[in-house]
């Protein structure tokens, strides 16, 4: 499942450089996560790094983009391929 950033985001700029897939970018008002690039850090780290560093805990799983661990790993393989 891809992650999503809620409107509680304070634009602190901490999450964007932590994303190994470049899935996080500045949106119109807050940072956004591209679900086609988000693997929840599968293949890179044990835990999603953006969630680890977010000071306001505004990043959560996006129920609209539900994916199993195996699907996230396949997406990771395509991204590095």
From TrEMBL:
<dbReference type="InterPro" id="IPR050157">
    <property type="entry name" value="PSI_iron-sulfur_center"/>
</dbReference>
<keyword id="KW-0249">Electron transport</keyword>
<keyword id="KW-0408">Iron</keyword>
<feature type="domain" description="4Fe-4S ferredoxin-type">
    <location>
        <begin position="1"/>
        <end position="29"/>
    </location>
</feature>
<dbReference type="InterPro" id="IPR047927">
    <property type="entry name" value="YfhL-like"/>
</dbReference>
<dbReference type="InterPro" id="IPR017900">
    <property type="entry name" value="4Fe4S_Fe_S_CS"/>
</dbReference>
<keyword id="KW-0411">Iron-sulfur</keyword>
<dbReference type="GO" id="GO:0005737">
    <property type="term" value="C:cytoplasm"/>
</dbReference>
<keyword id="KW-0479">Metal-binding</keyword>
<dbReference type="GO" id="GO:0051539">
    <property type="term" value="F:4 iron, 4 sulfur cluster binding"/>
</dbReference>
<keyword id="KW-0813">Transport</keyword>
<keyword id="KW-0004">4Fe-4S</keyword>
<protein>
    <submittedName>
        <fullName>4Fe-4S ferredoxin iron-sulfur binding domain-containing protein</fullName>
    </submittedName>
</protein>
<dbReference type="InterPro" id="IPR017896">
    <property type="entry name" value="4Fe4S_Fe-S-bd"/>
</dbReference>
<dbReference type="Pfam" id="PF00037">
    <property type="entry name" value="Fer4"/>
</dbReference>
<feature type="domain" description="4Fe-4S ferredoxin-type">
    <location>
        <begin position="31"/>
        <end position="64"/>
    </location>
</feature>
<dbReference type="GO" id="GO:0046872">
    <property type="term" value="F:metal ion binding"/>
</dbReference>
